């Protein structure tokens, strides 16, 4: 089972990112679970969401405390939230950042596997908005073996209509090619 913790801010679509990832994995025959977690419930406040993806049935329902994968779609959240909380030596980080993975490792004080992509710049250029929730999924799909880029695109097509889906898919495809 893969347990994933997403970090972002209210209004950035972090819950949608978790839902889209689990939907994409479900298309591939996996068992999935998406869990939103709201605290202050206001735009801009730190928000978490959790996802589980497994080849077997999932019986647990609590939030993820020892994530296999940590995803952050907000570059400033690191100053307010401990992204390393509960991580294992084998945990993998996917972060929206202009910094390379070695810089991020140093900043976070970790030796884990880290992937970065400049999701914000991609989203601004393609979507004309700093919403990186779908964009970061391109990075995940390009590096992980439990969900394909095609399934992520299919999930986006089911969630969004027309031009919105098309632009989000374009951002996902670009991010999948620009992962450091």
TrEMBL record:
InterPro entries: Oxidoreductase_gamma_subunit, PorC_KorC, Pyrv/ketoisovalerate_OxRed_cat, Pyrv_flavodox_OxRed_cen. It holds the Pfam family POR. One of its GO terms (molecular function) is pyruvate synthase activity. Residues 10-175 form the Pyruvate/ketoisovalerate oxidoreductase catalytic domain. The keyword Oxidoreductase applies. Its EC number is 1.2.7.1. Keywords: Oxidoreductase. SUPFAM superfamilies: Pyruvate-ferredoxin oxidoreductase, PFOR, domain III. It is an enzyme of class 1 (oxidoreductase). It catalyses: 2 oxidized [2Fe-2S]-[ferredoxin] + pyruvate + CoA = 2 reduced [2Fe-2S]-[ferredoxin] + acetyl-CoA + CO2 + H(+). This is pyruvate synthase. The lineage of its organism: Archaea, Methanobacteriati, Methanobacteriota, candidate division MSBL1.
């Amino acid at each position: 089972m893969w347990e994933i913790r997403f970090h972002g801010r209210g209004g950035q679509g972090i819950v949608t990112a978790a839902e889209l990832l689990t939907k994409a994995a479900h298309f591939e025959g996996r068992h999935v679970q998406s869990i939103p977690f709201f605290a202050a419930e206001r735009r801009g406040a730190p928000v978490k969401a959790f996802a589980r993806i497994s080849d077997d049935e999932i019986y647990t329902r609590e939030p993820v405390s020892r994530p296999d994968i940590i995803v952050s779609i907000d570059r400033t959240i690191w100053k307010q939230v401990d992204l390393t909380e509960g991580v294992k030596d084998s945990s993998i980080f996917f972060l929206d950042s202009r910094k390379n993975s070695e810089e991020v490792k140093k900043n976070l004080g970790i030796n884990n596997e880290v992937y970065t992509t400049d999701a914000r710049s991609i989203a601004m250029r393609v979507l004309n908005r700093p919403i990186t929730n779908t964009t970061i999924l391109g990075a995940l799909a390009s590096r992980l073996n439990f969900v394909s880029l095609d399934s992520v695109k299919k999930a986006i097509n089911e969630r969004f209509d027309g031009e919105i889906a098309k632009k989000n898919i374009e951002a996902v495809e670009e991010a999948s090619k620009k992962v450091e």
